[in-house]
Specification:
Elements (H helix, E strand, L loop, with lengths): L6 H12 L21 H15 L8 H9 L4 E2 L6 H8 L7 H26 L4 H26 L23 H18 L14 H15 L2 H13 L1 H4 L22 E6 L15 H5 L12 E2 L2 H5 L6 H6 E2 L1 E4 L2 E4 L10 E2 L19 E6 H16 L4 H14 L1 E2 L2 E2 L12 H15 L6 H7 L3 H6 L22 H6 L10
Antiparallel strand pairs: 1-3, 2-8, 4-7, 5-6, 9-10
Family: Belongs to the SusD family.
Subcellular location: Cell outer membrane
Protein name: RagB/SusD family nutrient uptake outer membrane protein
Amino acid sequence: MKTIRNKFLLAALVGSLASCIDLEEKPQGVLAPEGLFKSTKDVQTAINGAYGLIASEPLYGRNFVTALMLRDDMADIGDRTTAAARQQTNDFNMDASNGLVASFWPRWYKVISTVNSAIKGAEDLKLAPEQANPTIAEARFVRAFSYFHLVQSFGAIPYIETFVSDPESVKTIGKSSEEEVYAKLIADLEFAKQWLPDQQPADVRTRPTKGSAATCLASVYLTRGDYQKAYTESKWVIDNKDKFAYRLESDFQDLFIATKADQIKETIFAVDFIGQKVGPESTNDDLMGAMTGIRGTDQNGWSVAVPTLKVYQTWDARDYRKRVSFEDSMRIGGVLRPYTAFPTAARPHIAKFARYPGNANSEGRYSDHNYFCFRYAEVLLTAAEALAEVNGAPNAEAIGYINQVRARARNWAGRQTTFPADVALGMTKDAFINLVLEERRLELAFEFKRWYDIKRRKLGDVVFKGANSLEPHTNFDASRDYLMPHLSTEMAINPNLTQNPGY
């Protein structure tokens, strides 16, 4: 977490390793692994640089995670003067020149190229497996994590798993099918689960562990509809939670207070930002507080990603998670005013990023947040959904996982309430699966998960066109919109990069 103080500076070094895979730009040269890596410490330096590239404006600092939020049915455009690329992403009219894709597509491949270089460097050291494999496992986890996002967003993609010594060869690489990409990333995660430690030194949770690898595997299998394996992996994490020091935090609000990030035991893997510091290539530039904050008067936010009014109104006010997730009032001229008085978008805004950003500027930018990639509550929800699918109906175990999450939601900062009530036995499978998906929507609201749930369950026509739609988009096209477009500039460089259907 905050112990990796120079990670964004390392990104400048490893950026030269990644230049050959930035498919949008002409390669500028390569720093070969054999000339850089002399020890496992050098390999770790490169992996830390990959973390810096993830904790950057193109990925978890703004563009990629904003695209995931705008794509779902929980966050809509608040200020319609914002960039066209964001509006296109939200409104399901993206094209092959979308600026968000132009930002995050090459950055993910820079992350991948960096860890590929680290893996090659570690292998070239010719160390014993017990010396080399834990470091290689960390790099392979980062590679799998990156490809998992890419394959969910684009479907078939170029899959590169070796260090690229000839940049020109990248221009002719074809797509690997979704099945091939998933098989490769599952192999990476299985290796990571075998060789990563139970806990990282000082219990740093922005580096992966065996629990992180198993959790990611559970998410992959859930996405693929392999419910038995999704249950097996999530149950393994649950059974070993004490070994990994995982637990639900007692107060839901604590999860989103940046100054508490390093002490959160619910974290399984997170992306770390360091307050008021910024490095090369937009590393460590976190803008999510500003993007989601209230624009105007005293708040200094931008009102880009703002929930629709129906998202707020349909969320039961007895649920503490609603209070934590929304900012529904602000001081104007020293007077507390309701959201109807908000200057730009007169509806409640997202509070998870803007309320407690820690050491940040007045917009909430350059925050201290650690953004959850996986947390323990999600493991419980994954296990509940997968187990119900395996059994054909929810049993006491599956219901118990949901009730653990709900029990935490009843704690209003130390004051115990009765809502949401425990789920009782006797539900049908379909009713329970719908309940789990709804629980995920509320528990993980605005944490970049909802779009993937919509996509994997093929809910687009229901959530965007149905009578109870929270954010109607009548132009949603299931034959096109579950995938994002490839860039026309990328296809001009590489004729084997064919466009996704409908674009």
